[in-house]
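Cross-check.
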Amino acid sequence: MGINNLKINNYKPLRDVVFENIRTAIMEGTLKPGERLMEIHMAEQLGVSRTPVREAIRKLELEGLVIMLPRKGAYVANISKRDLIDILEVRIGLEGMAAYYSAERISPEKIKKLELISEELKEYVCKNDVDNMLKKDEEFHNCIFESTGNRRLMSMMNSLWETVYRFRLMYMSDYSSAVNIVDEHMKIIDALKKGKANLAEQLAREHIEKAEQFMIEKLMQDETV
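Predicted model, tokenized:
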């Protein structure tokens, strides 16, 4: 398990630092679905006592990232088809709404920013640099949400991103090979630039729907292996 590099933050309690470290390891796939979380072993790796590790595991259970099995211990929660569908259905609605309002409100500066992000994303796709692909893809969608000026909408998407990230990390490399993400992004930008709200909404929804279908198919393949 790659959680031995604990970064101490003087402004945060140790339990919070331990929680964030373990949570990141789960989100990034270092700790994989179905993997058992051994308190003693993790405490030794992190160089802390068992108490903050135990507290972190309990908190992660509340977030649904960890499950506790009677007489067996704590395990990283598996990703189910139902979880994926539920999350992506919500994201489809939010992305469509954001694109619609962004088309009505986006500034020329934001359009330029979206175009720059797309160019950078294209470079990373060519290099199959998954970490930076994810970052640029997230920047692209965040820029659209910011362009709506709707704080509630941005807050809802921010709370969803971390959960979505776990799925996207698993499949981004394969997905970018199967679907021209950059081309889809450019079509959305063009609709935003022309102020075509209905078209922007349609393209944004279709963009996420393709990802949903691809990820569900991959998840089902993985479950049969």
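The chain has a mean pLDDT of 87. The chain has nine helices and three strands. Passed to J.P. for a second look.
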